[in-house]
Design goal:
- The protein is built from 10 helices and no strands.
- It is mainly α.
- The chain has 2 domains: 5-57, HRDC domain (DNA polymerase, domain 1), CATH 1.10.150; 78-175, no CATH class.
- The longest helix has 22 residues, at 36-57.
């Protein structure tokens, strides 16, 4: 099963793995967000990767004292990541590219995109939504309104992903005069 780590675990468990660097199934279960099922299914794969990384970089493993922190900075802070994402969205980059660059899950990055579009008053979703699809979403909004996404999703035959609807609907909303 070829699945990227951020699909199996969210940002918080991956950061916790980076801090604790578990070496056994028992210590892997002590990582935030790791339960018995994920440990059984993915434990060997993650433990092997963690072990290889620590061995190559001379890092201590099984660090469970809350006072001890990883000597390496694993990811940029949330604020830095969001600022970088906004800059990349301004350049018209897609969610997948931005997610990789800022080292965040695509779902987190999609949230940043929605916030960027809303806060910057973006009206053209073409970097993220096909223009024909944007037009179809606009027609659905005219029929069912744009306050909630579910009616739009249903009007579109439940075929268009919510992320695309959210981006397009926010751009349509930004075209409306504000009170």
């Amino acid at each position: 099963e070829q699945v990227p780590p951020y699909i199996v675990f969210g940002d918080a468990p991956l950061r916790d793995m980076g801090r604790k660097r578990p070496s056994t199934h028992r210590s892997f279960l002590m990582v935030e967000g790791v339960g018995k099922k994920k440990c059984e299914k993915y434990g060997d794969l993650f433990l092997e990767s963690i072990n290889d990384y620590c061995r190559k970089n001379g890092l201590e493993m099984d660090i469970f004292n809350g006072a001890r922190r990883s000597p390496i900075k694993l990811k940029p802070s949330m604020t830095e990541a969001k600022e970088e994402a906004f800059k990349l969205f301004k350049e018209g980059r897609d969610v997948e590219t931005v997610a990789k660059q800022i080292e965040r899950a695509p779902t987190t990055t999609q949230g940043y995109l929605a916030e960027y579009i809303d806060s910057h008053g973006v009206t053209d979703p073409s970097p993220w939504v096909d223009p024909d699809l944007h037009h179809r979403i606009g027609q659905a909004i005219e029929k069912v309104g744009g306050e909630r996404l579910r009616p739009i999703f249903e009007e579109l035959g439940e075929e268009v992903p919510y992320d695309q609807i959210r981006v397009s609907a926010t751009c349509w909303k930004n075209q409306m005069p504000r009170d």
